[in-house]
Amino acid sequence: MATPPVASISSHLRAPPPWPPPKNISQRARVRCSVLAPSGQALEAAASPRGAEKSPDWVPTSDVNLHIQRLCRSGDLEEALGLLGSDGVDDRSYGAVLQLCSEVRSLEGGKRAHFLVRASSLGRDGMDNVLGQKLVLMYLKCGDLENARRVFDEMPQVSDVRVWTALMSGYAKAGDLREGVLLFRKMHCCGVRPDAYTISCVLKCIAGLGSIEDGEVVHGLLEKLGFGSQCAVGNALMALYSRCGHNDDALRVFEGMPQRDAISWNSVISGCFSNGWHGRAVENFSKMWFDGLEIDSVTMLGVLPACAELGYELVGRVIHGYSVKAGLLWVHKSLERGVDENLGSKLVFMYVKCGELGYARKVFDVMSSKANLHVWNLLIGGYAKVGEFQESLFLFEKMHEYGIAPDEHTISCLIKCITSLSGGRDGLVVHGHLVKLGLGAQCAVCNALISFYAKSNRTKDAILVFDGMPHRDVISWNSMISGCTSNGLYDKAIELFVRMWLEGEELDSATLLSVLPACAELHLLFLGRVVHGYSVKTGFISQTSLANVLLDMYSNCSDWRSTNKIFRNMVQKNVVSWTAMITSYTRAGLYDKVAGLFQEMGLEGTRPDIFAITSALHAFAGNELLKHGKSVHGYAIRNGMEKVLAVTNALMEMYVKCGNMEEAKLIFDGVVSKDMISWNTLIGGYSRNNLANEAFSLFTEMLLQLRPNAVTMTCILPAAASLSSLERGREMHAYALRRGYLEDDFVANALIDMYVKCGALLLARRLFDRLSNKNLISWTIMVAGYGMHGRGRDAIALFEQMRVSGIAPDAASFSAILYACSHSGLRDEGWRFFDAMRKEHKIEPRLKHYTCMVDLLINTGNLKEAYEFIDSMPIEPDSSIWVSLLRGCRIHRNVKLAEEVAERVFELEPENTGYYVLLANIYAEAERWEAVRKLKNKIGGRGLRENTGCSWIEAKGKVHVFIADNRNHPQGTRIAEFLNEVAKRMQEEGHDPKKKYALMGADNAVHGEALCGHSSKLAVAFGVLNLSEGRLIRVTKNSRVCSHCHEAAKFISKMCSREIILRDSNRFHHFEQGRCSCRGYW
């Protein structure tokens, strides 16, 4: 059947153009009703002869056709379908019914009409083109794409481009973009010329596929066909290029368009934004504004996110104001209905991103609908970002009242808020709520839960959540690794990192930042270098934050060369980089370099912050560099940082370690709000600088303001130890016990050290044995304690027990055991430990180890070997080693060697009076009075004075201090009478007090008087007279006890049957029944 010309088809039977679709169906119906002929005219037309010439407005003569068309005009589809199977129904009636099915979207009616078409004579010889087109359009409008394509394929030839375009549009709407493109290719092969709408439709399909190659081909075709100047085609091209990321091409198309409509501008604005060109999006919006084009809500939706990303709050406010003025913001331009949901959500997003939560909240409160979960998430997240976690929780409660179910992002933000507020119980409630909602397996939610449990120090629960995740992303792994690192589970962090790597997960910079601190803490240098290599390979090394963490890792692993190399190769250093390098030099003991680095930091324009200043002060405190410390102090004052508590505490520590307690106290007094660190620093400083009484005075003052913590105990206990104040030490012990501080290893070790230095070795051992976790410091203190008390065999046994228990000794441990061997005369054992230290444990001996060995050789009478040992030392000996040998010369009466050694001592410390007195004693004991006189003149000529010695004893809660030759004590007369009786008894029993030993040529009358004035002897006498019988007498002396006092104490212990413990600057002496624990090794 030949296809009639389009003009011969009645207007009410002709299919509407597929592009654009009809805007108002009811209007078309009114037009149809207006063309109905009067009934008389219809009858005349029906009665006209069949062969009469048909006019363009020909009306069917068949009653059934006329009736069908009337029913179609009135919209009675069921009646029309009932008549459609009658005899004599022509193609126009079928077309009218199909048109009505399209308009009312009746797929069932259309299928019945299609069946009747096939059953009629019209469909037996193949589908007529006109009816076929109507069937295709009917199926497309009813949403049955499959039947539309089936009818389309049955048609012998489709030349109407509108049908091709409609079918293409149907595929595009259905999401079958590939088939839409293939249909366009088939149309091109069939020789059908596309129009502008066809080109627009296929471009949309190509844009959806992201096939830029096909798009460029179609672009060339439309230019060839002359469609390039049409606005709709240009808009489609821009959408294609923007969608494919070719924003430059989209802009070229836009700039080449002769005419642009609002859609063009909206397309270019949204395209710039979607490709990250936020600045150009705002710029194009400005051009559109100044060109006078009408700005609609679509424009607003495109430009507001760009303003948000750029932080253009002012531009956003202008757009907001325009939308209010133009009525675009309100739903149906009604204030009662509220703000349009789409525009309102974009405004909220813009204000939240710009940090204006107040404006965002105002817009949100007047929005027409509160059902947009994204807007709730924006506000909840915005408040959480600025730290207003309570407001975030309040919004979540309001959201719950509105009946809006949270998603994974809501819950993730909620958990972060609870984590920040430390609401552990609330977090568990939220977790349970998540399980009920079925969100417990969502990746983002699980990530937030892992972070919550990690920050709440519930790492086991975090691991349970992590192991139960069906799917993990890189954030899951990073959160878990970071959580283990922050909670001290470094081994687990490394295990997770290796597992993540082996499972093929992609590592990002956050992964490396999380695992490197664990490598640093475990000193895993090899793994750290592997991570470093990976960062170089992936380019992450260029990130300053990662380079800073690498600095810390290499510094912790003592790889100073790599630390310095990374620092010098850093393209961009921030204050953290410089601070890390200062810390690295401090760890390496390169304190002198810190001053240069701090100066270099200022020259490069990096202003030191609080952390840099405190790090530098710690370095200067470590090496007692008071000059540099004062320089940093001046910088802090000039930059207004001297009142910052962290800086003042670091300044106090620096001055304390440099021995300048006056300056430290001035800074302390100037602090308005002192914290625990402030008090502990000064108390510890007094203890460190042997100002024990000041330490106890400050501690008493602290009790009135703060409750001491475990660190305070470790600071005050050394003060009790330095005074040998057992009573005060016991008070501290009781306080620590009541507060539960004994669980702290540092407090327990300080208590053991206190008991050792107070002479209560048995109590120290009992406390040591009760320790559940003995560390290296605990063992070292106890070994040194046995050594101080002359119990070398016990020290060796304990040292061997330590090694058996799996604890490797360090340099301090070997110093303690060598000290013990020295003070017990265990020569062979001492050499054995000295060799083991070097050969087995690969510990290079330091000066203190050589000093112990020299003392050991001297105490065993090997002066010549000691002298040769000093000469063979690989490090330069200091004065203490030569002084030890000088004292040995006195004990063993080797005057010749003493003179040689004294010259070495005087070269190193020419101002120390004690060494001149020691040499004078050696001359006096050898009865070389001329040498004594010359030495006395030499001392007097230089204006040197002998340091006054003192001793003290604690009795009835009070400390009594005795100074040599001081007779001002209230019991001075009683003490003198007692000592005279002791001297008399010693002479009667044949004990020679050796009056020559330190009198530098005085006459015999002065000899006896001076012998009674030695401070340690006065303190022992006071103890005998004032402490009840049977009670231990504990005396402490600030220097070495002299021979006469040592002999007198031995004699008094026997004469009065009293046990005396005398602690001098070198060791303990236990006197009992005329014997001393030192056995002459002192």
Automatic annotation (TrEMBL):
An annotated Gene Ontology molecular function: zinc ion binding
Q: Which Gene3D superfamilies match?
A: Tetratricopeptide repeat domain
Which residues belong to any copy of the DYW domain? 990-1082
Gene Ontology CC terms:
chloroplast
**Region of interest (Disordered), residue spans:** 1-25
Domain of life of the source: Eukaryota
The segments carrying the PPR repeats are: 160-194, 261-295, 372-406, 473-507, 574-608, 675-705, 775-809, 810-840
**Which keywords belong to this entry?**
Repeat, Transit peptide
The protein's matches in InterPro entries, at most eight in alphabetical order, are given as:
DYW_dom, E_motif, PPR_At4g14850-like_plant, PPR_rpt, TPR-like_helical_dom_sf
Q: Which PROSITE patterns match?
A: PPR (PS51375)
Coiled-coil residue windows: none
PANTHER family registered for this protein in UniProt: DYW DOMAIN-CONTAINING PROTEIN, PENTATRICOPEPTIDE REPEAT-CONTAINING PROTEIN
What protein name is recorded for this chain? DYW domain-containing protein
Instruction: Name the lineage.
Output: Eukaryota, Viridiplantae, Streptophyta, Embryophyta, Tracheophyta
Q: Which gene encodes it?
A: LOC100845277
